[in-house]
Design the sequence.
RNA sequence: GGGGAUGUAGCUCAAUUGGUUAGAGCACCGGACUGUCGAUCCGGAGGUUGCGGGUUCGAGCCCCGUCAUCCUCGCCA
């Protein structure tokens, strides 16, 4: 008996291989039994190839072939043959088929709960997660995980070529409150003490800078025990990067070079830098969000001044009224659609949604009557309105208009198909505020994180008006998703202590929580800065999927469970006793 | 913790106003078939309508509770 080991994959044979004898290994995707001829589509992650069994050649093998079912694993040996007229133009290997001379069933499969070979989603997500070993066998999932591999490979390639060192930091780490809830791991050897899983390797990578590893990166697993979303998992991956002896432009140019390398090499784009930069304040003004999707316009227009002059009491009394002009969309929105949009923005915190359909000679709207002719003309002017447009307005305190308007803008962009989903549009957002006020804790908290340096010229503001101080922090936004986030760090321990103080941490707490870090800063810490890229979100964007669960092999459900292995799970009482927990 | 959607055959879904024996496609099982490629044709089997309770002469459908999955607000330095 010949070897069952494959000589080729199921995706590589072409006409040029005709007449050679080959062996393929793979899963049976489909069988077509004609009583006489039996056709098998054999699939692996490289593709699929048709095998044909002819009873005239070997009746025993033909009978065996008739017993093949979906997802059996087989080794098929045979001769590569030109299919001639019978070729299948739909698949890359469709010019040839294998005329079987040998068949070994390596393993049979139970009837799978859903079909593996189809492109459309074959089952609901919980079924797919429960049978993840089958779900991941689907060509679509294999494409995504292969893309993910290419992305991280390209990242490593680029950074290695730039002289970066890949250095690992511990998973068993220490809780440093501030930020997300930690996952804790009890220590057996120190009962009552706990490790924490890292939310990011932030402090350790800064300490690596102190130690002189001036270009560092790591594909770091990060853990945050917070509620999940479509783009949030309790554990996720970051490309974590830090550089010493750089300023903001130094970091940005490396990240930009790497991002272009990724987009161009992996995605076959032809993008060039530099990416546009937008100040945080301008982003909030024009888009209502710090991560605008700039593939389309629909910028916000502030009509507060005009609104205050109208007779519409909601507008007159609101702190801020801002609008969006949905160009040419009047006929696309029925009254029912507009009601649904109103409900949509209310979910985002808006009190309501005012709308106006623009006609040649008037504005059609329940609130048009509150606007004088001159005011209507001015409104048209400010929003550059033309017949056929729909104008939307949200009125509220300024901060409260941001979320609903951004959500509305993104929804309109998507619903009205204002952009090409395949386009990759990058944008730097810079000059974030240092702090935001936390009403429940009655103190400032760091907007990025408390290790971020302010703009040099804003140091004086920290004494007089901390809320106005801006940080040397930067985000790289891709299609409305925050892809990269980073900052130049504080490297002088007095300045670091000053910032800790401003967020309400006294010297005692500083020493207790971050003593090791402050100490390191005293021993010749160089100026440094860096950033982190969310790998999973990056894959989401590049693969064009809208759930982070599609980008990782074994994701957890919204309630943090693995439906296949059944985690989290109870453990033996003995294990708890050893940990001193019971 | 709050709001919302969904849950019917292995899978995806349907089932009129609460009314006869809960249907279809795919998958599965048996049979026919030598050029199919989502094979085709004939036949068959397959149901705790998520779970528990209630209303009713009668519940897949209405009510209450609960569980699961998803979306979302809060949360995520």
Sequence:
């Amino acid at each position: 008996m010949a070897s069952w080991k494959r000589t080729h994959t199921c995706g590589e044979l072409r006409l040029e291989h005709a007449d050679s004898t080959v062996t393929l290994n793979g899963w049976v995707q489909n069988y077509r039994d004609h009583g006489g001829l039996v056709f098998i589509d054999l699939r692996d992650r490289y593709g699929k190839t048709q095998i044909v069994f002819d009873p005239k050649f070997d009746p025993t093998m033909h009978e065996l072939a008739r017993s093949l079912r979906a997802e059996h694993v087989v080794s098929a040996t045979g001769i590569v043959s030109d299919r001639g007229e019978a070729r299948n133009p739909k698949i890359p290997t469709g010019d040839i088929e294998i005329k079987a001379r040998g068949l070994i069933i390596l393993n049979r499969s139970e009837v799978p709960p859903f079909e593996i070979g189809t492109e459309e989603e074959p089952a609901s997500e919980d079924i797919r997660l429960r049978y993840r070993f089958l779900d991941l066998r689907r060509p679509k999932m294999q494409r995504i995980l292969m893309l993910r591999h290419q992305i991280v490979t390209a990242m490593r390639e680029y950074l290695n070529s730039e002289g970066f060192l890949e250095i690992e930091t511990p998973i068993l780490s220490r809780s440093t409150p501030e930020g997300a809830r930690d996952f804790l791991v009890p220590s057996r050897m120190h009962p009552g003490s706990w490790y924490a899983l890292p939310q990011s390797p932030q402090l350790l990578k800064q300490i690596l800078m102190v130690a002189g590893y001036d270009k560092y990166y790591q594909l770091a697993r990060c853990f945050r025990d917070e509620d999940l979303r479509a783009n949030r998992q309790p554990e996720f991956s970051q490309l974590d990067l830090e550089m010493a002896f750089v300023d903001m432009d130094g970091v940005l140019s490396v990240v930009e070079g790497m991002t272009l390398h990724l987009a161009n090499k992996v995605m076959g784009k032809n993008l060039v830098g530099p990416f546009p930069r937008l100040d945080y304040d301008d982003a909030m003004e024009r888009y209502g969000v710090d991560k605008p999707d700039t593939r389309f316009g629909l910028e916000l227009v502030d009509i507060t001044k005009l609104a205050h002059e109208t007779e519409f009491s909601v507008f007159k009394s609101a702190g801020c009224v801002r609008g969006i002009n949905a160009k040419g969309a009047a006929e696309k929105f029925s009254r029912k659609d507009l009601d649904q949009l109103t409900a949509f923005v209310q979910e985002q915190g808006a009190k309501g949604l005012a709308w106006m359909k623009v006609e040649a000679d008037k504005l059609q709207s329940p609130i048009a009557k509150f606007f004088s002719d001159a005011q209507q003309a001015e409104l048209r002017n400010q929003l550059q309105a033309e017949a056929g447009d729909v104008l939307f307005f949200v009125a509220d305190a300024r901060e409260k208009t941001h979320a609903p308007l951004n959500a509305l803008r993104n929804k309109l962009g998507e619903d009205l198909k204002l952009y090409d989903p395949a386009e990759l549009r990058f944008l730097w957002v810079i000059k974030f505020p240092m702090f935001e006020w936390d009403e429940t804790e009655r103190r400032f908290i760091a907007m990025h994180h408390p290790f971020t340096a302010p703009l040099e010229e804003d140091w004086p503001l920290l004494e007089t008006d901390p809320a106005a101080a801006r940080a040397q922090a930067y985000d790289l936004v891709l299609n409305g998703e925050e892809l990269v986030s980073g900052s130049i760090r504080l490297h002088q321990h007095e300045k670091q202590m000053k910032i800790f103080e401003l967020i309400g941490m006294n010297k005692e707490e500083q020493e207790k929580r971050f003593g090791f870090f402050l100490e390191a800063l005293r021993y010749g810490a160089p100026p440094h800065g860096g950033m982190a890229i969310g790998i999973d979100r990056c894959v989401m964007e590049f693969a064009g999927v809208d759930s982070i669960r599609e980008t990782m092999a074994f994701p957890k459900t919204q309630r943090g469970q693995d439906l296949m292995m059944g985690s989290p799970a109870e453990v033996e009482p003995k294990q708890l006793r050893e940990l001193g927990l019971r």
User: Anything to note?
Assistant: The two ends of chain A are 60 Å apart (CA to CA).
